[in-house]
Amino acid sequence: SAGPDDMPAEVWEKVKNHPCYSEEAHHFFARMHVAVAPACNIQCNYCNRKYDCANESRPGVVSERLTPEQAARKVAAVANELPQLSVLGVAGPGDSLFDARKTFETFARVGAMLPDLKFCISTNGLALPDHLDELTRHAIDHVTITLNCVDPEIGARIYPWIYFKGRRWTGVDGAKILLERQMEGLEGLIARKILVKINSVMIPGINDHHLPEVNRVIREKGAFLHNVMPLISAPEHGTHFGLTGQRGPTPAELKDLQDRLGGGANLMKHCRQCRADAIGLLGEDRGQEFTMDKIPETVV
Ligand code: SF4
Ligand code: SF4
């Protein structure tokens, strides 16, 4: 995984206490996700809407949905118990920026209580250009965009539709809009000096051969990390891909691709695809100790 030798000093300064990015930090600093973003504005073929967004969270688990007020209470309770808490993320269960008010209200409430906490979000990028300035107003030091291709023809095989400006767009038309908005969002974040990590889901036969091109483009635009995740596609997850028999990559195929991308944007190999309500040090999840029924009313 990444270390001080892999990135510019100003980037390292921002990520060194971040459990997801620094090999050292992930033993000492904890992260927490709150599931305040239930809805999504696109359809990915690898998604099952009953569960968490597969973009950042492990697909196939149901996270506890919270209002911003509940989320703030939960963060306060966790911070009491877990002084190493350094990062709060919104990673679903849908898209963190589709109903962005909930995400920003959560950050505003938590920021008022715990001014040293850093925030991050993950998004499919469709709504990102509309929220660039608001993102800079909160202590958001990095954003994850899931970007699986830079070619709308490939995009049409991954995204059956998107919902944009009050209507549904399908096929290449929809994918073209999504991909343009992702690029606009990426450029806007870089211009505002917010770190950008790119997640790509590796889908054999659809975008696996194309991910080196994605890596080249996002590196050129200034993304600081590229995290290639395997498609987890099983019929029991109920994803469209699972139902059509689309398989995920083998561990050897994933490693081979990651090795080929080795010279590109720093690759992150240890992302655990934590669930949308994960709590604790990386690699542990104490979420079940902090469900809402265990949080006192009076914590804030
Ligand atoms: Fe599902 Fe996430 Fe894709 Fe939305 S962005 S369809 S929640 S995987
Ligand atoms: Fe970190 Fe990846 Fe887990 Fe997000 S999903 S908290 S980036 S390890």
Automatic annotation (TrEMBL):
Return the similarity comment.
Belongs to the radical SAM superfamily. NifB family.
- Obligatory cofactor(s): [4Fe-4S] cluster
* Role: Involved in the biosynthesis of the iron-molybdenum cofactor (FeMo-co or M-cluster) found in the dinitrogenase enzyme of the nitrogenase complex in nitrogen-fixing microorganisms. NifB catalyzes the crucial step of radical SAM-dependent carbide insertion that occurs concomitant with the insertion of a 9th sulfur and the rearrangement/coupling of two [4Fe-4S] clusters into a [8Fe-9S-C] cluster, the precursor to the M-cluster.
Q: Care to name a GO molecular-function term for this sequence?
A: 4 iron, 4 sulfur cluster binding
Metabolic or biological pathway, per its Swiss-Prot or TrEMBL entry:
Cofactor biosynthesis; Fe-Mo cofactor biosynthesis
Q: What is this protein called?
A: FeMo cofactor biosynthesis protein NifB
What residues does the Radical SAM core domain cover? Answer: 26-275
- Give the source's domain of life in one word: Bacteria
Span covered, complete protein: 43 to 342 of 503
Q: Which UniProt keywords apply?
A: 4Fe-4S, Iron, Iron-sulfur, Lyase, Metal-binding, Nitrogen fixation, S-adenosyl-L-methionine
